[in-house]
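BUG: 3D viewer hangs when loading the predicted structure for this chain

Environment: internal workstation, default settings.
Expected: structure renders.
Actual: progress bar stalls at 90%.

Input used:
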Amino acid sequence: MTALTPDASDLPSWPRLSVFCIHHANRLPALARERLASTTLAQGQVAIDAHRGAHIIARRAIGGEEVVWLVAVENGLDTSDLSIRTAIDTALEGFRSAHGF
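Structure tokens produced before the viewer hung:
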């Protein structure tokens, strides 16, 4: 199994790659889904332009209270375009407000 795990270096919030072997891992996928679901605070789809959008997920950092925001944009959205980035920022602010963050 390959996983991103917390790193104990100077940048504790940056993940590092870990590889480990698990024998008899029948319940592992269900456990991973349960663990991930327990950290999810809110998620939803937002419009970025007339045809495409982004999926936003707010998660509680494992072992802490910090909220981690994930934004996955649909194919075809150029995130280097300033107008797209502004639309993403606006959509994220609206999502945060609508969900009480």
